[in-house]
Amino acid sequence: MKKSAIIIFLVAIVIIIISSFLSNYLINNIEARSIITIYGIFGFFLLTFISSLTIVFPIPAFSIIFLFSGFLNNPFQAFLLGFSSGLGSALGEITGYALGFGGREIISIDNEKLEKIKKKIDKYGVIFIFLFAISPFPFDIIGILAGIIKYDFKKFIIATILGKIVKYLIICYAGFFSIKWIINIL
To answer: Given this model, what pLDDT does residue 34 score?
Structure first.
């Protein structure tokens, strides 16, 4: 086994454990409203970053962001919120990739089968990762699998960043316009 892979795996495990405790602390001790009033847009970057770091105890950051975006003053603020939240979420997904990358060396996997899978994924991987990053489904498994097959990290992170930014822009604009519309009706 390669020492660097084991170190990456162990670091990913430590980060996941620490972020799980941190997310539990955030859920139980800090109101979501204080995140935006104290930290502003950066607070949502941190919220989505921590939310994506955790694999064991995910925080439903998208629902909080959807609600808060309805109380923003203009569409540009919704853009900033969506962009920073998407970026934070994407960067947090690195732990899943690292977990798969390091875990490959620890568990025994047939390299021949992995190479066949990798060849198939190399053809459409960026599109697949991008589309899955936009979807509401848990993304952690994609990051872990990408790490296991040693998918090109640059392609992985670029597709993840673009997909997560698009996802959170959709969430923010949906919240911005729909919540204002509902408030006007009431």
So the answer is: 64
What whole-number distance in Å separates Cα of residue 155 and Cα of residue 179? 36
As given in the structure block, the two tokens for residue 12 are 């990913």
Q: What is the distance in angstroms between the CA of the first residue and the CA of the last residue of the chain?
A: 63
Q: Tell me which residues of the chain have a pLDDT lower than 50.
A: none
Q: Can you give the pLDDT at residue 136?
A: 86
Q: Could you give the CA distance from residue 168 to residue 48 in angstroms, rounded to a whole number?
A: 10
Task: Report DSSP state, residue 54.
Answer: -
In this prediction, residue 31 carries a pLDDT of 55
Listed residue (170, 100, 162) closest to 136, CA to CA: 170
C-alpha dist (Å) from residue 43 to 46, 59, 65, 89, 185: 5, 14, 11, 12, 30
Q: What is the pLDDT of residue 150?
A: 87
Query: Residue-wise over 16-33: b if at least 16 C-beta within 10 A, else e?
Result: beebbebbeebeeeeebe
Stated pTM of the model = 0.80
Burial class (CB in 10 A: 0-12, 13-18, 19+), 12: buried
Neighbours of 73 (CB within 10 A): 8
